[in-house]
Design brief:
The structure holds two protein chains of two kinds. By secondary structure, chain A is α/β, with parallel strands linked by helices. Chain A contains 16 helices and 14 strands. In chain A, strand 9, helix 6 and strand 10 form a beta-alpha-beta unit. By secondary structure, chain B is mainly α. Chain B has one domain. The relative contact order of chain B is 0.14. The chains are: A alpha/beta, B mainly alpha. At the A-B interface, helix 7, helix 15 and strand 14 of A face strand 1 and helix 1 of B.
């Protein structure tokens, strides 16, 4: 890769820098990128989806105030898009706002309120609520966009969700469904609530489904999560340092507990395929060394660490928290790549996420081309690869899951 | 619903799960290989195909990889497909008299049980003779045996089981410890097994064997003739069985008044004998008399089905009452076995196999009987008695023709020992029911059962050697 004064020619660095600093975009360019509709859409956390070189996806903020000071600007020349930084520029692709965002379900709900596209994923949140807020023990970095107050705490029906997924797939905007739940004070970690949605999606679409839930009280719910159709599971610890975890995530700490997070993740790696159990560690809310320890711990037990960068949200208790600098956090991503490689964790599944840096994108920080891994990932993104992945995942589930009568039923 | 995730490595799961497809692929290859071998001298091409099909069915029956009935259906459709017999002839074989006799017997037996008559008789006899430990033991043993003369032994075991279980509980016998409890449950199982071979009615295997014989040779065995030939074996086994029960498990109880209480309570619950029981009892008695004295002229299946029709005309039973007693799987299985047996015989495959298997090494029919009865009694411990008959009888009939033996003899040598499965719970449902009580273990059953099996084989062969000639059967 070309060595320059800017990050423009290293997609890994550039992705982080863009996420932290945002980008300036002229209204005319936005129009040409078919992104001008975005501002009018309710609830869409607007960012411009850009594909950097080496097929690196990133969602770049451009509406927020801090983006006005960004050194980056999106330019358009002869129908081609470039990101510029001073005199330098790099050609990129801009992903237009999905057309389905403007559509409504048959019950009249705007599809963008149910599902949002991030890279290759359509992220579905069937219930826009998080009981942590009810108990005033919400995570301190969270702005409460999943608050149950007022009319935000709505539960969408299975049919609404199916219509959203169908629209996203018809438009070719997603390859994988990511379905999540906020905090739900039930022993199953929310999987019983998500179950009908997952089953319906699996019934109607040949697609992989990633589930973000909470660690259930008993491991049998992890079994259930896999059995109902989840191909990947995320229990997001967010903060690895125990003390900071208690402070920043009081709800998670008191109602679930750090140890339960770790135990559930460890158990899930024995149930789900290699590279499909993941957990977020937010970069910037704890010392770098602590995040590195978390990366080492997770990769040792077979969990894929996903490292979103903390960006203060308006309304969150940590809204004044200082954002980290790209050069400070860059070593984390190199460390992530090395740890994942050393522990032979499959990097094929956590891919094309535009809002976080994936483990394979960590290769840009260590100068490894990782040709085989990249080839595999590209293969699994192809039509044939997607079919193969879905078929293998289905076959694995068929072989692994045994359904019997419950003991209560047998006792009868 | 209980969900379990198999946490073994995926490659291991695939290997283990591949067993079934690999098994059936292997079966297919074996079949293909046998079909395409050069036809040996003395065997027709139809005979060769019949042997190939027989081999496949034998493997499936023995391994139980498919339900017995499904293997039989496979045999039925494959016989015409391979050109061993034509379609019309093949499906006509399914309409064999034995199949309809079995159907009729299931329904009659179901009607008797549903009416409550059999339970009442059982309670009355046990109440009358169950004053002492040995008296109660003998009454359970003989009652199970006597009822199995007239009803399916499996049904008898199922019917008497709750009564015996109540007695064991009423007497406060300790599960797995009490000798007396072990002997009671073993008496139930052995009584059913021994009684079950006495007539055509104890199980469907004798009608199956008789049906196969008739299709293969045109020779028939009637109800009375069979019973006369087998009865001494049954009587001797009952005596040996009783002695065995009291020697293996000497009674460790003296006070029987608690058992009496159980009988009295149960009889009180039943109330007085009603019209239904009288009427069903009368139909059953008339049916048995007709089987005994007019079986040959009227046909036992005809008598059974007419009786069944009579039950419905008199509104003594409704279809939904007896539906649960009709084992359609067994009926299909028997139809298929008869078809396959006939295909083996008519194509010359059975005779060719017998010749190839035994050659000139055996000179006496008694030795043939000894060998087949031994093979049968050993095989029936591990597999379905009907499957044993389906496998051995076609070869046995072929053997009989080679030695110029009366084919009926080989039929007895297979049909009778096929019912004498004393050793293991999986050998026959009566044993499984006894072990399910928890009062007797598989080990207890096997220990006593092995001795009983050897004695049963000896008794059967001694009967063949000394009794059969007396009643005019030429060996």
């Amino acid at each position: 890769m070309k060595q320059t004064k800017t990050y423009l020619h290293n997609p890994g660095y550039l992705k982080i820098d863009l996420m932290l600093k945002g980008i300036r975009v002229d209204k005319e360019v936005l129009k040409k990128a078919n992104m001008d509709k975005c501002r009018n859409l309710f609830d869409v956390a607007c960012g411009i989806d850009v594909i950097l070189p080496h097929n690196t996806w990133v969602t770049v903020p451009y509406i927020e105030d801090f983006t006005k000071d960004s050194p980056y600007e999106l330019m358009e020349r002869d129908g081609r898009f470039f990101i510029t930084h001073g005199d330098e520029s790099v050609q990129v692709s801009v992903v237009p706002t999905p057309e389905f965002y403007t559509l409504k379900t048959t019950t009249g709900i705007q599809l963008s309120r149910i599902g949002l596209v991030h890279g290759g994923y359509v992220a579905i949140t069937p219930a826009t609520q998080c009981d942590f807020f009810n108990k005033a023990i919400e995570c301190r970095y969270c702005a409460g966009n999943l608050d149950i107050y007022s009319n935000k705490g709505r539960v969408y029906s299975v049919e609404d969700v199916l219509e959203t997924v169908e629209a996203a797939y018809k438009e070719g905007k997603a390859e994988i469904v990511y379905i999540s739940i906020g905090f739900s004070d039930t022993p199953d970690g929310g999987i019983e609530f998500l179950k009908p949605y997952i089953q319906a999606i699996k019934k109607h679409f040949n697609t992989l489904v990633a589930v973000e839930a909470l660690p259930p009280k008993e491991n049998r719910w992890v079994d259930e999560t896999y059995a109902v159709g989840a191909d990947s599971v995320l229990y997001n610890l967010e903060i690895f340092n125990p003390k900071l975890f208690d402070e920043i995530c009081p709800g998670r700490a008191t109602l679930i507990g750090r140890e339960r997070y770790l135990d559930a993740l460890r158990y899930a790696t024995t149930i789900f395929p290699n590279g499909t159990v993941a957990s977020h560690l937010i970069v910037g809310l704890e010392p770098i060394e602590s995040t590195m320890s978390g990366i080492d711990y997770f990769t040792n037990i077979g969990v894929v660490p996903i490292l979103p960068i903390y960006r203060p949200s308006l309304g969150a208790k940590l809204s004044q928290y200082k954002m980290p600098a790209t050069k400070d956090i860059a070593p984390l991503y190199g460390h992530l790549y090395r740890a994942v490689t050393a522990n032979k964790i499959n990097t094929t599944w956590v891919r094309d996420i535009s809002i976080v840096t994936t483990p394979l994108e960590g290769r840009f920080f260590v100068g490894d081309e990782a040709r085989m891994k990249t080839w595999m990932q590209n293969f699994y993104k192809s039509r044939l690869g997607l079919k193969a992945a879905w078929s293998l995942a289905t076959l694995r589930r068929k072989l692994k899951v045994k359904v019997g009568e419950s003991s209560a039923h047998r006792d009868k | 619903m209980r969900i379990e995730i198999d946490r073994r490595p995926i490659w291991l799961i695939i290997i283990l799960r591949s067993f079934r497809p690999i098994f059936f692929l292997t079966i297919g290859l074996i079949f293909f290989y046998l079909i395409n071998l050069p036809t040996p001298d003395g065997l027709t091409i139809q005979g060769q195909r019949a042997i190939a099909l027989f081999t496949v069915c034998l493997i499936l029956w023995v391994t139980g990889m498919l339900p017995l009935a499904i293997t039989s259906l496979l045999a039925i459709v494959t016989v015409p497909l391979l050109g061993i017999l034509d379609k019309k002839e093949t499906y006509a074989l399914f309409g064999n008299e034995a199949v309809f006799f079995i159907l009729g017997a299931f329904i009659l037996s179901g009607a008797v049980m549903h009416s409550g008559l059999s339970g009442r008789i059982a309670l009355a006899i046990m109440n009358r003779f169950g004053g002492t430990p040995k008296g109660l033991l003998a009454s359970i043993f003989l009652l199970a045996s006597a009822l199995s003369f007239f009803m399916s032994e499996h049904a008898v075991a199922a019917m008497l089981f709750p009564i015996v279980l109540d007695i064991a509980k009423g007497l406060n016998l300790r599960p797995g410890r009490s000798n007396y409890a072990k002997s009671l449950f073993l008496a139930l199982a052995w009584g059913c097994i021994i009684g079950g071979v006495a007539t055509f009615l104890g199980g469907a295997r004798v009608p199956l064997a008789v049906g196969m014989l008739k299709e293969a040779t045109g020779i028939t065995i009637d109800f009375l003739e069979y019973t006369v030939i087998v009865f001494p074996t049954v009587v001797m086994l009952l005596v040996i069985g009783y002695l065995g029960l009291t020697r293996f498990f000497p009674p460790d109880i003296e006070d029987m008044h608690l058992a009496k209480t159980v009988f009295e309570r149960k009889m009180k619950e039943m109330g007085k004998i009603g019209y239904l029981e009288y009427a069903v009892g009368a139909v059953m008695a008339a049916t048995i008399l007709f089987w005994l004295f007019f079986g040959r002229s009227l046909g036992i299946a005809n008598i059974a089905i007419v009786s069944v029709v009579g039950l419905f005309i008199l509104k003594l039973v409704r279809w939904k009452d007896i539906e649960e007693y009709v084992n359609w799987g067994i009926i299909l299985m028997y139809g298929g076995a008869i078809t396959l047996g006939a295909a083996m015989e008519k194509s010359g495959a059975a005779a060719w196999m017998a010749n190839a298997a035994i050659g000139n090494g055996i000179s006496s029919p008694l030795v043939v009987i000894a060998i087949f009865s031994l093979l049968t009694i050993l095989l029936t411990e591990g597999m379905s008695n009907a499957a044993v008959i389906a496998i051995l009888l076609p070869v046995g009939i072929g053997m009989a023709s080679r030695f110029n033996m009366e084919p009926r003899l080989i039929t007895y040598a297979i049909a009778v020992p096929a019912g004498l499965a004393f050793c293991f719970p999986m050998s026959t449902p009566a044993n499984a029911i006894a072990v399910s009580s928890g009062y007797i273990t598989t080990k207890d059953m096997a220990k006593a059962g092995i001795v009983m099996m050897i004695l049963a084989w000896l008794v059967f062969n001694l009967t063949a050697r000394f009794y059969w000639p007396i009643i005019g059967i030429r060996l």
